[in-house]
Design brief:
78 residues, mainly alpha, 88% helix, transport, ComplexI_Subunit6, Nuo/plastoQ_OxRdtase_6_NuoJ
Length: 78
Amino acid sequence: MTYFVLFLGLCFVLGSLAVASIPSPYYGVVGLVLTSVAGCGWLVSLGVSFMSLVLFMVYLGGMLVVFVSSVSLAADPF
């Protein structure tokens, strides 16, 4: 169980670094999803599964809005 929690922490840090360092919005969303899954998995390992589910739903909604807006801005030629 300790290795699983350490693995989730590592995924959380690597996902955060991926979001911060990747300029493309398409690959940045992959980092956001990895970070949210790892963070919610970390919360599940602590025993707060309902809070994890609520945070995951909120993060997914926010990520979809940010992804769609950034893709639409990147596709606009002006």
